[in-house]
Amino acid sequence: MNISTEQLTKVHRGGRRALDAVDLHIESGTVGLLGANGAGKTTLLRILTGVLRPTSGRVHVAGHDLSTTAGLSAAKRTLGYLPQELSLYPDLTTREFLDYIGVLKGIHDKRDRRRQVDARIAEVGLEERSGERLAGFSGGMKRRVGIAQALMGNPTLLIVDEPTTGLDPHERMRFRALLAGLGHGRTVILSTHILDDVAQTCPEVAVLAAGRLVFHDATTDLVGQAAGRTFVYRPAGPDTGPPPGAEVVSAVTRAEGTEYRIVTTAPPAGARPVEPSLEDGYAALLRADGATQHPPTVRQ
Hints:
By secondary structure, the chain is an alpha/beta fold. Helix content is 29%, strand content 28%. It has 2 domains: 3-219, 3-Layer(aba) Sandwich (Rossmann fold), CATH 3.40.50; 228-275. It is built from 9 helices and 15 strands. The strands form 3 sheets. It has a 7-stranded mixed β-sheet, sandwiched between helices. It has a 4-stranded antiparallel β-sheet with strand order 2-1-4-5, covered by helices on one side. The chain is globular, with a radius of gyration of 22 Å. The chain starts with a strand and ends with a strand.
């Protein structure tokens, strides 16, 4: 499943540029789409799914040109989509809801539709709850139903927008485990602002900042953006805060003082170097002297 955008741009009313000349090429596997709120992630996903039209640029999904009616229809047949806000029908059971989605996706053979419903329910681990109404489901269970509906029709492209937002830690762990197994035989785009979701499920990552693609490569290479630049620092005397010019990744207050995890090219005296994490690499990439002033790192 190949996805390609060329100079993709979306300008909203009032002149706000949500996407700015994005060139993105994805071959297969699970790709994390990172960026702060407002970076353009949801706009990009809505264009890839055909929900939104770009202002300019081109989009191809599995060789289909989304600017044409025929291309858009063909691309949608390959697609499964879990939006950030999925409207469920609370009076329907899991089985009834998935059967309804199957009809909407053109699965008209009843036996085939029933077989797919059974398979999707098993895939997301809801066998014991398949006859219960959706109104009584927790947030995590509703997200699992969301994944199940996206998988109806056996799509080769799965797009998931902020799937773990609002979930408690246990539900988030279960959902990550589910997502990790979905990339076999299909392309998965996971959009999130939660770095741990990407670190644990995505071998490849793309980063948007202010509508621009500033990075697209292996997740380990994003971690490497902070190599030799990540330190733990605790002021020796009274806490004067983090050193000027450093990017603060975290701050932990201890009995002996506040300990700062920082990304900087000029560490203060007493700073201890540490191995970088994905969070450190992301912070390094988006520093004012990084992503905004230097060309983006993009896989060729």
